Amino acid sequence: MKFTFDDNFFQPEEREGFLVSECMKRYWAASLVCLSDFDDFCERHSLRWVAAYGTLLGAVRHKGFIPWDDDIDIVMPREDYDIFFEKKDELPGNYVVDKYESKHHRYGGMTVINNHAGISFDEAVLQKYYFCPFRAGIDIYAYDYIPTEKSEDDKWRLDILTALKELQMTRDLDGDNMEKRFELSKRCEDISRRFVSRRDESEELCRFITYAQWNVRPVLKTAWLSSITDLPFETGTVKGFPPDIADEYLSCTVGVDWRTPKRTGASHNYPLYREDLKRAVRFLNDGGISMKALPPFLSHLRAEADLYDISYS
């Protein structure tokens, strides 16, 4: 799975009445390079993944990113996710894998892969990631197998809820106690994978944190894992589901009217890199480099700062 981008791709563009800037296009491209590297890794280890949430919606409805979206979400079955994390050091380059070990990570059964730790103006990094200096990457959600017996299901959810509440209390009352937070986060994950050895009995998978806290019925059926297919996405493809399965999944996660674009807020401020852009401006200013004198291949940073009223010299 490879993505290639010519100069025309990076032109600012209106999609669905929403302006997608050159800077955002370069951020999209950088994120898709990360996804391509991750897919190569998964191919080597025969690991399964599939686009989820807004990324699957974008693939099916827009054949690419939702115009007002800026991140990539994927799902992995628990056993594949565990193998990935065990072998994560085999990822190429300087990829940073952020799980619950990080002080600032809000644990939710999710791992974030970024191409580097912050901002990079290294020539090789800029060349590989289409002159996007910001950290870019993908969000990976582990999906766990739900027991078929109701009594087991009820106890499983209760055990997860108990551990999550204790984790929340620790975060609120003793946020700097990383050892305790790590211990509780690991306990949550250990409980969530309780039935992975009995996955052949299970008919459904879930993101355990939403299932346990809000009893949101899972929408990923184990039978769908054998139907993963390639879907067009920008200049390449992503792993997704055929139309009938995608319709059922999106009807549950987005709503039955998912085919109608609606500009809704994300779980983070758009654009995702806004704070990194501010840091980049400060970094350049501190180095005596004027934003007004940036070389042409970085001029999109100045345009983006203007777009979001970020002052510079």
How many domains? 2
Contiguous helical run count: 10
Poorly predicted runs are: 103-107
Name the shape in a single word: globular
**First-last Cα distance:** 41 Å
Instruction: Give the ordered list of helices and strands.
Output: EEHEHEHEEHEHHEHEEEHHH
CATH architecture of the largest domain: 2-Layer Sandwich
Specify the biggest β-sheet.
Answer: 7 strands, mixed
Under the CATH scheme, which class of the largest domain? Alpha Beta
Task: Determine the strand fraction and express it as a percent band.
Answer: 5-15%
Mean of pLDDT: 90
Rg, please?
20 Å
The amount of helix comes to 40-55%
Q: What is the CATH third-level topology name of the largest domain?
A: Beta Polymerase, domain 2
- The total count of strands amounts to 11
Structural class: alpha+beta
Which features characterize this protein?
single chain, 313 residues, alpha+beta, Beta Polymerase, domain 2, 7-stranded mixed beta sheet, two-stranded antiparallel ribbon, 11 strands, globular
Secondary-structure map:
Elements: E1 13-15, E2 18-20, H1 22-45, E3 50-51, H2 53-62, E4 73-77, H3 78-86, E5 96-98, E6 110-114, H4 123-128, E7 137-145, H5 150-173, H6 178-192, E8 204-206, H7 208-214, E9 220-221, E10 229-233, E11 236-240, H8 243-253, H9 274-286, H10 299-307
Parallel strand pairs: 4-7
Antiparallel strand pairs: 1-2, 3-4, 5-6, 6-7, 7-8, 8-9, 10-11
Helix pairs in contact: 2-8, 5-6, 5-7
